[in-house]
Specification:
The chain is an alpha/beta fold. 31% of the residues lie in helices and 13% in strands. It has a single domain, classed as Domain of unknown function DUF4159 (Rossmann fold).
Amino acid sequence: MSKIRRLNRGLMLMLLLTLITGGAIAQRFRRYRRIPESPPSRRGVPDWKNPTGFNKDTFRFVRIRYQGYGRGPQWWTDWPDSELNFSFRLQQLTSLKVNPKPLNITLSDKRLFDYPFIYIVEPGNLQFDEEEVKILRRYLLAGGFLMVDDFWGQWEYDNFYDQIKRVFPGREPQELSLDHQVFNMVFKLKKKPQVPSIGHAHWGRGRGVTWERRASNDTHEVHYQGIFDDKGRMVCIICHNTDLGDGWEREGEDEWYFREFSEKWAYPMGINIVMYAMTH
């Protein structure tokens, strides 16, 4: 991986201010019965080529497919628009070399260890099998990093907690303070971002409501937690009561949502997380 340099924060903010007029515009993906592991088209997102020699030495956004119960696995939520847009912005706003094609794989895929960053979405009904538990533990302790996003309320948190405790029985998630590096890598965030889906955002517009599941009292407060290895390296960030992925997915659909949530919070937090994962 090429050496990463920070962009001037002011430059990045100016760039972000122009995004709505001419950039990633991926829209919602049709829920096909069989979802391909890589998007079949760019869906309106600009393509790019990395310099010769960087074909394999690039960051690739990798989403994990998983099994679930009840209503079934929700691993495909926001796929692939979320990743297409985010990958474009990441290569546009940083010096990181980024693969333009995101990927979804299972934990048992032999390619897993080729990628230092993986993403799990909506783990409220996630269920790992025993082999996946072993693989994920080995992957994270070997230097991999997991981002978990878009789940709300205590019930969904409890399910994910039970599953991650199978991976690390002796490790507890720790709430991250705002002065932690992950909130200050490229963007210095003044609060922990809570990003609702676009529909919930419009419902709460003018009311100061930025949470989902309005009938529940356990979704109002956003949480960012980390799980650490024996050397103090964060191996997993848990983004609870927020939906960063929708902020990436929906940037081309609504200017108000883009400016209030994508531009201010979802992209800055996502970029911070990736940069943290790739430099620690």
